[in-house]
Amino acid sequence: MEYLLFVVYLVLFAWLVTKVKYFTRTGLSKPQLIIIFLLKVMAGIFYGWIGLYYGGLAQMQDTWGFHTSGIQEYHLLYNNPHEYFTNLFRDPYESGVSKFFDSTDSYWNDLKGNMFIKILSVFNIFSLGHYYVNVIFYSLITLFGPIAIYRVMIDVFPRKKFTILLATFLIPSFLYWTSGIHKEGLIFTGIALVVYVVYFSSKEKRLGFKRICTLLISLILLLTLRNFIIVIIIPAILAWLIANRWPRYGLAIFCSFYLFFGILFFTARYINPRFDFPQAVVNKQQEFIKLKGGGSTISMTELKPTALSFLKNTPQAINLSTIRPYPSDVRHILSLAAAIEIDVLLLMFVLFLIWRTNGVKQTNFLYFSIFFSLSLLLAIGFSVNNLGAIVRYRSVIMPLLVIPMVAQINWNRFGSLLFSNMRNKNNLKNQ
User: Fold this and answer.
1) Which of 98, 60, 16, 96 is nearest to 273 (CA)?
2) Beta-carbon neighbour count of residue 320 at 10 Å?
3) Average pLDDT, the chain
4) How many Å apart are CA 378 and CA 110, to the nearest integer?
């Protein structure tokens, strides 16, 4: 039965991606859309296989744990419908709702897993509880995120469509982590749809009902699945919108906004003790330090909830979240792939610095991408000491950094120089 369901849904959804206007308006051909969808399905299957056979080594048991919980929730729908429809809104702790950033005894901390399990339980209604059939459902839903970013990027870089196509859908860590049954796919979809709505609404000076609904649903996804991203993305959006009003001062506006929010980050606790953001980051770091992540856990300097401590730990945070794992950190196939990917991206960054093209008009969008992405990377670097978790968490901002970088490299000039050097070497050999 599982194989039959898999084939039926795969064919049905492959056909569906060629009919949904949101996908077809990208200008991509039907074969291209089908290939992209199938790539996500294959990545999701590989993700599940790794989690099943190498989960202990690569610390990837979560995906099958979510699957098991999703089946239990699916059975709850038939055995106790009232509990199924109400348990998501019940706080099992005395004051768990007030602990927005806490990692223990917190309604919000539990919500991220409970919400994802609830979504999987809906999939199970149609898949009859089969993991790899659920991969097809998940691939279709999380395809909206990359398509949203692709549509934004080809509007920002209209002459680089093929380069953007490759950079959007073939970043290895992004494809892998956002295609498997875990929260990253939906988190990125939430981020991407927020970017899509803000970008085109600002450009067209129009915010319709559909876009308002899309924006609300996207923010709810972020709030429920990884709530601290809300605190990071809202300042970036506000700075972006104000910079669009005065585009000549875009960089100054972003810098001013982030200086203001940086000060607010450390001083809000004096207004209300519940807004002790530095202590929330310190608590999150302590929770990760207590976890035993095998060979992927690395030592880090412990934070204190002071501005000076955060400043001293910033180089460590940048190092952890941007250029790890090193080759010396490799312990299994996933860490090897992550190390190779980082080296390749660093090489591309060098090419970007040397052979960068000019003339980008949507600079405020690029400022948003940089400031938002770096803020998220810092949040990860300050709190997470598990390399597997770091690679997974940062995968959701990879397109916002990689696509603009790749789109602005003068590949023709680089290719001409490369072939010229090859010809010179051949000529020297023939002499």
Assistant:
1) 98
2) 25
3) 88
4) 24
